[in-house]
Amino acid sequence: MQLILKRLMACVYELLILLALWMLLTWLFVSAFGDATHGLKHLLLQALLWLMTGLYFVVCWVKTGQTLAMQAWKMKVVGSDGQLLTLQQASVRYLLACLLTMAFGIGLLYMLFNQKRLFLHDRILHTQFVLLNK
């Protein structure tokens, strides 16, 4: 139960970080291109936000295995061999996590019923969260 609670708290922290990044990027986009509430600009802004979010996660996972929230909650994502993820693993993990979350949260709900408390995308990719020593 401790791991689930830590992950939930890290998700809340992560969301606050991402909200700040999204607001900054949206402000820059709207300043440069004008209103983006509909049409092609809207789709471009959404794609840009999704790509920037992916870049944040992928770079963090490849460099240290930790996002800022994961550092605060002393956890790390690693491969089944305990090593940091490669660029390909991290990129596929982000894509798969997005797809499985959009599918009614199946990727996240899987953790509640999995004995090792793995997300479905972690199970598929043979990655895992580890808690770090204090």
Q: Any key phrases for this structure?
A:
elongated; 134 residues; 2 strands; 69% helix; two-stranded antiparallel ribbon; mainly alpha
Largest sheet: 2 strands, antiparallel
Strand content: 5-15%
Order of helices and strands: HHHEHHHE
- How many DSSP E strands? 2
Principal-axis shape: elongated
How confident is the prediction overall: mean pLDDT? 94
The gyration radius over C-alpha positions equals: 16 Å
Q: How large is the count of helical segments?
A: 6
Q: Decide which structural class fits the backbone.
A: mainly alpha
What is the percent of helical residues? 55-70%
Kindly report how far apart the N and C termini lie.
18 Å
Q: Please list the strands of the largest sheet in the order they lie side by side.
A: 1-2
Contiguous runs where pLDDT drops below 50 for at least 5 residues: none
Oligomer: single chain
Briefly say what this structure is:
This protein has 134 residues and is mainly alpha-helical.
SSE layout and pairing:
Layout: H1 2-33, H2 39-63, H3 68-72, E1 75-79, H4 87-102, H5 106-113, H6 120-125, E2 127-131
Antiparallel strand pairs: 1-2
Helix pairs in contact: 1-2, 2-4
Kindly describe this structure.
This protein is mainly alpha-helical. Helix content is about 70%, strand content about 5%. A two-stranded antiparallel sheet has the order 1-2. The longest helix is centred in the N-terminal third of the chain and has 32 residues, at about 1-35. It is elongated. It starts with a helix and ends with a strand. The mean pLDDT is about 95.
